[in-house]
Amino acid sequence: MTDWSIWSFCFAMGKLPYDFLSGSPVHSNQGKVDAPMLVTLLRSTDGENVLVDTGFEAAKSMTGAGFAEFVRSDSLLQRFGYPPESIDKIVLTHMHFDHAGNFHNFPRAKVYVQRYEYEAWKAVIEQYDVSKVTKADWAFSSLNLDDFKALERALDAGRAHLLEGDTEIAPGVVCRLAKDTHTFGSQWVDVSTARGSFVIAGDCCYTFENLNRMWPPGYLQGNPWNMLKEFDRMKGVAGTDLARLVPGHDIELFNRFPAGQHEGVRFVEVTRAESHASLLEPPVLHKAFNDAGVPIQG
Predict the structure, then answer these.
(1) Which of 21, 92, 198, 266 is in the most buried spot, having the most CB atoms within 10 Å?
(2) 3-state per-residue secondary structure call for 266-280
């Protein structure tokens, strides 16, 4: 059986209203909380590297707010011994700017996104005069048009692939379509390991509290009733105690899993295959490639 290690890295830190993340009105008027922006690396015992989401290229949100501790995802992974060329596959959980930017800086990676996500956003774009779109337009409050154009170029080049619902993209790694939840065709990733199956949620849930309380977040561009159904499906994989859940933007992640910091980057070691070195123990920087540029297996 192929086993997987999972690490999640904070490439930027934002401040968001509590109810934006964990629900309104139950958390309205309670101020702002730290909101980590995450990319997640899956490494198999066969030597395959899958990156879930790629973040953005510049440390500004669609509303113009800045982010702290920003490191572009390709540079971030390089600090941990994974050059951009070592990434084999990329899963874009959805097309929002903080998840779907910067993938073009991983030159070898195949890119996977749900067909429904692509086609629905394309239909939205065609309804608007995009030359007049601003951050004040709710429809484009989290969609960076340049990211969408980059995806279309990748599709034309045969580098990007559109998924038709739940699809296994690597041994034990299944992209699960969460239709009309956070966005049109959001997806989360179900990773089977020797220590159980793990959920990399993307924005199908922002926080542990979303699932614990069964309360959708305050901001989404889909249907909260569908999101509640998806919460149940994720719980069925991650466990009712959520011990195998990586939510999209929860600072609590760094308390739930073994956490470390390397060259200014905070990260968690979600789970580790027995044959893989821990990133929490020195030397943090292992070599994913040998001196000849050949991937190291295992």
Answers:
(1) 92
(2) EEEEEECCCCCCCCC
> What is the model's pLDDT at position 135?
75
Which domains are seen in the chain, by residue range? 4-177+249-271 (3.60.15.10)
| Strand extents, DSSP E, 129-276 | 160-163, 167-170, 173-179, 185-193, 196-200, 245-246, 259-262, 265-271
Helices (H), 28-96: 73-79
Report the alpha-carbon distance of residue 122 to residue 126 in Å, rounded.
6
pLDDT along the chain (298 residues), means of 10: 97 96 96 98 98 90 77 98 98 98 97 98 95 87 96 98 98 98 98 98 98 97 98 98 98 98 97 97 57 48
- Supply the pTM of this predicted model: 0.93
